[in-house]
Input
Amino acid sequence: MDRMGPARNMSPYRLLGSGIVFGLLFVVVLVGLEPVMRSLEPDSFLLRDDIKDVLRHEQTLIEAKGKIIYIGDSTVRFHSRGEADTRSQAALLEEFFTYPVLTASHGAYGAREAEAVIQACDRLDCRPEVVVIGVNLGSFSRAWELVPYYDHSLRRFCLRTGWITLSHLWSHLHAPSQLSNPFSWAERHADSLRRVEQVTRDSPPDRQYMNRYGGNLDDSLSFPALERVLKKLAERNQRTLLYLTPINFEDIRRTCPPEQIRRLEDRRRRILAVLESSGHSYLDLSEAVPNDGFDYGGSTVTEHLISYGRKLVAFSLVAKLRETRMGQATEESR
Amino acid sequence: MQFNSLAFLIFLPVVYSVYWALPHRKQNQLLVGASYVFYGWWDWRFLGLILISSLVDFVSGRRIAASQTRRERRAWLAVSLIVNLGLLGTFKYLDFFILSAAQALAAFGLTPHIETLNILLPIGISFYTFQTLSYTIDIYRGQLDPTRDATAFFAFVAFFPQLVAGPIERASRLLIQFIRPRKFDASLAADGCRQMLYGLALKVLLADNVGLVADEVFADPNLDGWLCLRGVYCFAFQIYGDFAGYSHIAIGCASLFGFRLSRNFAYPYFSTSMTEFWRRWHISLSTWFRDYVYIPLGGNRKGEIRRRVNIVVTFALSGLWHGAAVTFPVWGILHGVWVSLEARRPDSSDQPPCGSGLFPNCNQALRIVATFHLVCLAWIFFRAPDLSSASAMIGSIAGIVTAPSLQECLNLFSHKAFFLIAVFTLAEWLRRDRLHPLESISRYRLVRWLTYATVAAAIVLVGEPREAPFIYFQF
Output
């Protein structure tokens, strides 16, 4: 036993006090370590992958003046394995529009992550020419929000605050409490959680579609975030183009019962109403790609597109950008 | 409630503050209440099981001691065994046995319409049932007097630091500490804080990081042999970091309340034989099986062959204790066979492994490497979802024909998981004469505090903050 520590007759409350002092000093040390963390090589193995992404996003935003920032989920940068045309949605947009496009995207980014990126724009005083946001109808489902891999809370905290070290501390305290706390949001949505666990890639397509696009929008954390981000963009007077990413409506109409299709259409209508009322330009591309434009490598239920589908989306985006004369001023001045 | 959660960060100081302001009996009452809150945080419905187990064993213990006849004593012991093992059997093994029976019938061409009950395994049930069983068995054997203090007994069964994953304590060691008044020992409590910090580092920094590699590899057992081998190494350190980490936190946490729990891990991966490994790995479970299974089976008193058979049977049961799947008894039998083939050695778990020299000698180094690899081989069965996956993985590893170059080996350490394995292995080797590596670091306060701050910063900045419950919770 260590006899180098405190005196034996020390009171328990003095030890508690020492612990609290240590905790406070530790937070100060963490704050002091912020520049050290930021000075690490971006690919250092000491940095977590999500922090690496946040640093990349920050760099993107710093360089964004006069460019298009494309925010979205995996559909933004996806191309199929083994596909001859490996140009992503973002690359196609840049090529067709002949305008520089930078991305702030990652698999399963939704409205909450878009909101965090726009908050980071404020923090970094970033003024992109145009912000393009892909809105995935699936990202408003409990099934989406409850998948641990899709939990980007650390990225959001870090993008919002700019504190790498403190966001680590926050995420450590936050993460394990998610499922082990009877008062937590996860517990309150236990039914949804069980549903998520029961639906797998081997489940019948209609159950997978229901899991992805069904559910009540009022339960979703992303839906209010979408309203907030639209408001924020309007306050910034930011030129913005939003679009609903394509989903496989053709297959949905073939495999799902009418009630389920009606619910999906309700969801789409409500989201479009929010986009409409925001005053920003928007496109409904949810039915723009036919059945054969999707990539089924990963799953039947997917928003990933093959080259043909990606081109359809890119053409639509370019047409809308031209129609609304977004990106024109800088294009002319170049 | 998880140790690495915000809830526990608030819970612990609150309970600690109130606890030391109370007299002895009220302290025990507080610990019962706090332990039930801690356990009920997962699911309050499981509290019923722990209450049943505590009540039955409290009454059985008293009745065994009060019984006049051997038959009556046996009957009360049987009540305790049936209730505890019944709970364990129902909640942990019933589905497994139903499925196994269905598979056995299917092998004979019968297709029974059997449905499993999908029973949820209550966290920690294997640990607290074994702890409370040892109480009634010890009373039956005349090695322990029953307690009249129900509060102390209920606190002993449910004591929150070690309730969920041990160490499995004996009543003769822990219950007595609940019965006697406790005095705050600042030195013990301060070391408890250090031990908790080290345990947290093992869990969050080592286990959760290397676990990412292990999970990836075990998800696809047909990977290239070298990748499989890396995954197995990572799992070996994941399960060590996870379980030893939990034990350190539990022991440290108990120290804050004036309790001394048994040591559960004594640097097992530096063992030079399988026998030594089991004296250093999950010590409280090994000694439980030794005292309540191996010795009643006859131990080493019935000849050499019987001794070896007893060892294999004990390890097979130990494997089954770990989980309801065929892979676990296979893991246990492998260990049993290896231990039974070794010559008997005196217990040396109190001594640091390989003495106190800076380097092991050549013989020791070879034995450490060989023992570690045998342990890793068995871990494949422990972690793999089924026997065919385990076989596929062993096949991949056996298919390795070319050794990696020195540069490839060195490159491995630029990977976070292997870098952390190297750091922890080095720290544990250099501090293996201590109960844990953060004990008695320096006489200078500044050095000590800087070390603690560095470890804490590493936990926060390099640790993996993911939803990763301790592995042993499922046992």
Q: What stands out?
A: The mean pLDDT of chain B is 86. Chain B touches chain A through 54 residues (CB under 8 Å). Residues 6-182 of chain B form one domain.
